[in-house]
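Memo to structure team: turn this sequence into structure tokens by end of day. - J.P.
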Amino acid sequence: MANITLGVTGTYGQFSVESAFGSDGQPLSADTLAAFVSMVNGAGNGVQIVYNQKSGSGDGTGATGGSSAAAGTPDPDDDGSQDPDQSSTEKALDAADIRAIVRQKTTPYGTGGQAFNVETEAELQELYDEITAGADQTVPGGPKYPEGFKIQSDGTRIGLRTQSETGGNTIDVFPKGSKNGYKIHIKP
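Reply from structure team:
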């Protein structure tokens, strides 16, 4: 059995799946999400999801739906309207913002532009805290990422990896749901 993590937003009786990730922290393919939607719709639980695949995206997004009792829909004062998320006061960063911060606060390592160094563990943690500020959600990351992945609103995943060939912790950034990202580690 696979675990699927969904990022869901919506109002009472309607919802939209903004992102979908497997237990490995990777975005679900369009085919996998379509299979999940079929399974939920056939469960007879009163939830109906309409799958609106974005042509060629393959990013695991694009399902919308509704239920007469959409459990977990934000409406704490029961006035029928969606209430703002009071816990998210920081501006969410996108892939370009994160890349700019990383370039400003690190030293490039190698020639490929995909590896960066900081001097200390404290600098690494400070950078991680800064680039994950305002993240929409956290999804499981497996044994290499005990804190999971922080997901920004544009789909950029950020994980703090504890297993690194160079030793020490490493930040991995996967822009907009990409499987190919870049890393920031402590200078060897």
